[in-house]
Amino acid sequence: MTQTRSEFEARLRQIGAERYHDLHPFHDMLHGGACNADQVRAWVINRYYYQHSIPMKDAAFMSRVEDPALRRQWRSRIEDHDGTDTNEGGIRRWLRLAEAVGLDPDYVASCRGVLPATKFAVDAYVRFVREKTLLEAVAASLTELFAPKIHANRIEGLLKNYDFADDSSLSYFKNRLKEAPKDVAFGLAWVLDNADTAEKQDAAAAALIFKTDVLWSQLDALSAAYVTPARIPPGAWQPDQGLLLQKAS
Asked: Does position 249 have pLDDT exceeding 70, yes or no?
């Protein structure tokens, strides 16, 4: 049975309440100041792989969209991450965070040392957006509904607990608090408009669940590799690699 617009929106929001990665224990550690320097660096390195893949995901989506109005609306997502002449972009801001925690930004940008599970999860998301219906692709992006809360908590927690945290190093999160709401408003309205049958609503909800799984699995991988007892897989970042001090010497 097809849900009403308000019922379906509530269903989507409930997915976030139950499954968004702000509930993961690693975030409790990170925001509460319980992560050591190497665990923070591992998070920065692996999360970068997700950040750097988002514009490619959005470009793959746009390559399939025939409606110019939808392409125009979606284009700003790529610019928000890649930057423009007047906006340095989220990727550069993330690399500034990498520098602040003592990592060589060139090393981070190379994506060497990213956990295999991180790659599998993020690549699966890009492939999902490339291959699934436009409705499922947009619905998967709706984890942005839940992001402002985690960004606000992260800013507060990092500023309180870590010496590297300041306006410069945390600029990525502060900018997302301004950028994400417009994307959320458009994406949610588009999904609610286009999920007009029970089957489409089920597909959109499943897509959002898939995306929460992508985000959650990245933190599972970090925890398994870098939280005691650490089990770093072959080829993944080791705490003595990619540091600014090594570059300086």
From this structure: no
